[in-house]
Prior knowledge:
The structure is a homodimer. Chain A is mostly helical. Chain A has helices at 8-27, 34-41, 45-49, 55-83, 87-96, 103-118, 120-148, 156-176, 185-199. In chain A, α1 crosses α6 and α6 (103-118) crosses α7. Chains A and B meet through α6, α7, α8 and α9 of A and α6, α7, α8 and α9 of B. The first copy, chain A, binds a DNA duplex through α1 and α3.
Amino acid sequence: MPKGPTKRRPETLARLLDAALDVFAERSFYGASIEEICDRAGYTRGAFYSNFTSKEELFLALFDRHSKQTLDDLTEALVRATNATDPGKALTEWASVRDPDERRWYLVSTEFSLYAARNPETAARLAEHEAQVRDRIVRILELLFEHIGAKPPVDLVMVARLATAIREGGILQSLVEPDELPVGELERQFLPLFVRAVTAGIR
Amino acid sequence: MPKGPTKRRPETLARLLDAALDVFAERSFYGASIEEICDRAGYTRGAFYSNFTSKEELFLALFDRHSKQTLDDLTEALVRATNATDPGKALTEWASVRDPDERRWYLVSTEFSLYAARNPETAARLAEHEAQVRDRIVRILELLFEHIGAKPPVDLVMVARLATAIREGGILQSLVEPDELPVGELERQFLPLFVRAVTAGIR
DNA sequence: TCCAACGAATACGTCTCCGTATCGGATACG
DNA sequence: CGTATCCGATACGGAGACGTATTCGTTGGA
C-alpha cells in the first residue's frame, strides 16, 4: 500500500506551488486568496485541500522548495570558490547574478521574513535555513583568508550576516526603485570593496 | 467656513493612526481589518470612514507621519555631525540608537516597502522620502571627508544607499532572530568599519 | 439660547472567501 | 477486465469584512 504520491499528485503540487508564487508576489500573502491560486494553477479548491490544510502550509512548502534551490546554488558556489584563485569573486557572483524574473521571489521571501517575525515557529525554520546559508558563506570567507595567508580580524559569521544584510537591504531598495538601482548593483559595487576592508591591515 | 478640523478630529485621527500601527504590526497590512483598528482605537468604523476613504489611505498617512519624524531625527543628527569631531559617529548612532519598541515600526515599514514595490504611485512617494534621507546622509559623509581633507573615492550617494541597505537588511535579520542579533548590532559593528574602508587608501 | 454644521455611531445589504461534506472519474493493481 | 483507492470537482452553509445610508449627539457661532 504505497502511501506516497502515485502520479498526478506531484504534478498538481508543483503547479499549485508555481501559481502560489505568482499570486503571493502579486497580492502578498494575506491578500492572496486560495481560490485565485487554484484558478491560476488550473484547479479548483478541491485540489488545494487535498494537498494542503491551510494557506500557511502552502507558504511553508513554497519556502522549502526555494530554500533547497538556494542551498544547492550556494554549495556549488562554494565548490567553485575552492578551486578559484579569487574566492571572494564566487561570493560576489552568487550574490549579484540572478534571474531577473526572480523579482517575484524577492517579494515573497521578504514577506516570508515578516511572516516569520510574527511566528516564532516559522522563525526557527527560517533561522535554520539562514544559518546553513551563512555556513557556506563563512567557508568561502575562510578560503579567502587561507588564500592570502592571514587570520580573520573579525568574526566571520558576522561578516556573513553583513553580506546577507547588504544583499537583502539592496534587494529591498531595488524592489522600490527598479530603475535607479538594478538588482545586484549594490552588491556588485560594494561587496568587493568590503572584502578589501575586512582584509585591510592584514596583508 | 473653516473646513479644517475643529476639535475632535485631530485627536481621533491620531488615535486611529496609533491603533493602525499596532494592528498592522500584529497582523500585517492585508491581514488587518478596519474594524479591529477602530475597536483598538476606541471607535467604530463610522469614525474611520469619516476620516479616511480606504485602508490604503490610512497606511499612507501612517507612513507620512513617521517619515516626518525620521527626517527630523536625521536632520538633527546632521546638525550634531557638523559640530562634532567625528561626523561618522553621528551617522552610526543615528543608525543604531533606536527605541526598542520601534520593532512595531520596522515590521510596518518593511511591509510598506513591499506595498510600494507593488504600487508605482506609492513607490514614487517612498522613493522621494528615501532620497531625502540619503541626502542627509550624503551631507554627513561630505563633512566626514572634508574633515579628513580628502576627495571621496566613490560615489557618496551609493555609499548612502549602502548604509541604508545595511540598516534595513540588519533590521530584517533582527526581526527574525531578535535574540541572536539585537536591533542595531550589525550597524554598530560594521558601519564604522565600512567608513574606514571607504576612507582607506586616502589619508 | 438656538441652530447649523460637523463628526462619530448604527444599521443594513452585499460580497468574497473559507472549510467541509459529498460526488464522480481516473488510475493502479490483482 | 474488474475493483478499490486516490484525487480533484462540485455543492453547500456560514462567517467576516466592506461600504453606504442614515441617525444621533456635540460643538461653535449668531
